[in-house]
Amino acid sequence: MDGVSAIDLILGSDRTLLAIVRLSLIVTVTATLMAAMIAMPLGAAVALTQFPGRGAVVVALNGLMGLPPVVVGLLVFLALSRSGPLGPLGILFTPTAMVIAQTVLIAPILAALSRQVIEDLWAEYRDELTAMEVGPFGRVQTLLWDARFSLVTILLAGFGRAAAEVGAVMIVGGNIDGFTRVMTTTIALETSKGDLALAIGLGIVLIGIIMAVNALAWGVRHWAERHAG
C-alpha cells in the first residue's frame, strides 16, 4: 500500500517531493562543481610536482577518501557555529552550509582519483612535454584536458557520493522543513515517523538518479575508449 502511494506521489508530481528533489540536486550539483574546481587542479599539481612531504600528501588524500560524513558535518558545524571562525557569516542551517559540507566530503575523493589519472598520463607524456619545454601550469592544463573523459567519470562518481550522503548535511543543515530538507534526510526522518509513502517515493527517485549518473559515467568511459581506439 505504501509502495502504491509512493508511486502516486511520483507520478502525480507531488509538490513536497519535487521541492525536496530540486533542493537536493541544487546542493549536490553545486558542491560537486565547487569540489571539482578545487580538487582536480590540486590532484594534478600533486601528480606533476616533486616536493618534500609529497608522499605524506598522497597518503593523506587517499586516506581522506574514506572520511566519515558525520565527522565532516561536525567540523563544518564547528567552523560555522557562532563561536567558530566562520560564525559571523551566519550560514549555519542553510543550503550554503550543506554545499560546504558536501564539498569538503567529496573534494579528497576527486583530488586523489585525479592525481592517479594525471600521474599515469604524466608517465606517458613526460618526455614529450619536457622536450617541448612546457611549464608546470601548461602541463596541468594539457594533462587535465587529455584526461577529460576519465575526469568526467570521476566527477560523476563524486556526484553520486554526495547525493547519497545524509550525516553531514543533516548536522549542518538542520533538516528544516521547506528550507534544508533534502532527499536523504527526509527519508531518514519520514521512516522514523512511519510515513513510508514519502520515504519510499524519495528512495525510488534517489536510486533512479544514482543509477542514471552511474550509467552516464559508464557511457562516457565507453565512448572515450571507442573514440581513442
Describe the secondary structure blueprint for this structure:
Blueprint: H1 2-11, H2 15-48, H3 54-64, H4 69-80, H5 95-131, H6 136-146, H7 148-163, H8 167-173, H9 183-193, H10 196-228
Helix pairs in contact: 1-10, 2-5, 2-6, 2-7, 3-5, 4-5, 4-8, 5-6, 5-7, 5-8, 7-10, 9-10
Largest sheet: none
CATH architecture name: Orthogonal Bundle
Order of helices and strands: HHHHHHHHHH
CATH topology: MetI-like fold
> What is the domain tally?
1
Q: What is the CATH C-level name?
A: Mainly Alpha
Classify the beta-strand content into a percent band: under 5%
Please, could you describe this protein's structure?
With 229 residues, the protein is mainly alpha-helical. The chain has a single domain (2-228), classed as MetI-like fold (Orthogonal Bundle), CATH 1.10.3720.10. It has ten helices and no strands. It has helices spanning 2-11, 15-48, 54-64, 69-80, 95-131, 136-146, 148-163, 167-173, 183-193, 196-228. α2 runs parallel beside α5 (95-131), α2 packs across α6 (136-146) and α7 (148-163) packs antiparallel against α10 (196-228). 37% of the residues are buried. The model has no long low-confidence stretch (mean pLDDT 88).
